[in-house]
């Protein structure tokens, strides 16, 4: 296999396509709106109607049940969102449609009425379903096959997600919890408008990504769209579907953050700090803070392993990530044990839990996004990404069920059970790791760092 110099590469910033940063800020504001709303949802539903900041007055079980269904449907709708992009609109137009639906949804939530509450949730579910799988697929489309920068690009993109999530927990969480739930919902909608505006303004950097393949002028795109899948593509799809089991397990554990851990922070954690009570919603920003501060370092750690020839494949990282997440729940077990014995629980248990959950997430979540774009057949790229997000939705639903079970079994048993399952399941998948890696047919082999050549204005292409 030889190499030849091809056309100049697109404009770059900090060693990555400028389009990455357009997608970065779009997703940042989308996640600001989503996580801001998520931080308020359970607390709003469980707040008494007679409180100074009145809520709906639901029981904890009722609130966690709705939370589970809502977060599940948000991501399950990624499957029709992916089909819409691959079969009809393309990824860019689907992202625009999703952003518009999100603006409508968050705006309707600002109205103080239950019909508005349910209507707003419905619009958000549809909006995330259109936007989420397609904007993530577009990130992968910015990089050529075999470009080692792809994983790094997804980590940068993931940091954007978590800047939005970090700010939302502090800003939307504070406004909603202190000044009024519906003010918080409305603020989330206003910031989503910014995401839509900057995505539209950055279209010139996304000309060659996110387009509908069915109408492409390129012969290779038309052929890829029409021909059936070959054996290699089918094997890779099988590996993806198996890896999605790791995703379900991870999110069933990780999404306790917005449900059971959120309630635990509010009701059973001593949140006094130098005479001031820390808002419960602020703990939602710990995960994002750790991602922003640790994301680049963890990505560099894996990159160095790869350069040394040590195992650093995406599937390996995902297995390690699930195991580390399980370890994080041992700190929540310690917190629950402390509460059972002393009637209170220290904040540092939550901080340590979120730290380990974040390290696990950085090993698994951005890497799994990149993994989908490496293995998914081109004509089913958005659909496979949609299935990926649907599995996160199933994980979210499982998280809600686990949270509900705490009313029967208690927090200690639930947290400990999650820890044991995550660590055990990661070990089980690791046993079959080598066989699964063979089925990827070298999708991650021979990755090349194009940054040096492209800095000179060239790219390498296989003949």
TrEMBL record:
Main location: membrane
GO-annotated cellular components: plasma membrane
GO molecular function: peptide transmembrane transporter activity
Places the protein is found: Cell membrane; Membrane
PROSITE patterns xrefs: MFS (PS50850), PTR2_2 (PS01023)
Any one GO BP annotation for this protein: oligopeptide transport
Record-linked Pfam families: PTR2 (PF00854)
Entry membrane topology: Multi-pass membrane protein
Major facilitator superfamily (MFS) profile domain residues: 22-437
Transmembrane regions listed in the UniProt entry: 64-83, 95-115, 121-143, 155-175, 181-201, 237-254, 282-303, 315-334, 346-364, 376-394, 414-433
Keyword tags: Cell membrane, Membrane, Peptide transport, Protein transport, Transmembrane, Transmembrane helix, Transport
SUPFAM superfamilies from the UniProt entry: MFS general substrate transporter
Family named by the database record: Belongs to the major facilitator superfamily. Proton-dependent oligopeptide transporter (POT/PTR) (TC 2.A.17) family.
Protein name stated in the entry: Peptide MFS transporter
